[in-house]
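Ticket #4471: structure export looks truncated?
Reporter: QA, pipeline team
Priority: medium

Steps to reproduce: submit the single chain below to the structure queue and open the exported record.
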Amino acid sequence: MSAAAAKAGLIFFTADAFAVAGASTDRAKFGNKVLRWYQARSLPVTPINPNEKLVEGLSTISSIADLPASALPSTSLSIITPPRVSLSILQEAFSSPSASVRAAWLQPGAEDESVKAWVREQGLGDRVVLGGPCVLVSGDEARAQAAKL
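Actual output as written to the record:
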C-alpha cells in the first residue's frame, strides 16, 4: 500500500460507521464479500444498493444521500462499483466540506484515470484509498494501525 493510501486507510478506520456502495445479494460478488467483512468484525455497516431492500439481512439505502447529514462525517464509504458509477458516488459523498463522508476506499476495479484525476483535483488524496489495496486483504492491518492513534 502506498504512503498516501496508508494514510487514507488510517483516516478511513477512525470512522464510527461504514457504508458499502455496490453491496450485492450475490455472495460471489465482491460487493457482498466486503459487506460480510464488516459484519464479521461486528462493525456498523449500511449496504447501498438502489435495487434491493435487504442485503445479508441488513436494510439497504439507495444512495449515500439517504444517510442523515449528521452521520456523514463519522461514516467511511467502501466503493465496489464500475469506475463511471464510482465517480458519481465520490462526487456525492464529498459534495461539500460540511456534508461529506469521513473517507472512502475504492476497491480494485472501482477506479480509472478519471476517478484518480478527480480525487487529485479535489485534494482528497488523504481521504480516499486508491491504487489497488483491497479492504479484504489490507483492512485488518489498517484497522490495527488506526486503533493505535
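Status: closed, not a bug. The export was complete when the record was re-opened. Leaving a note from the reviewer for reference: The first strand starts at residue 17 and ends at 21.
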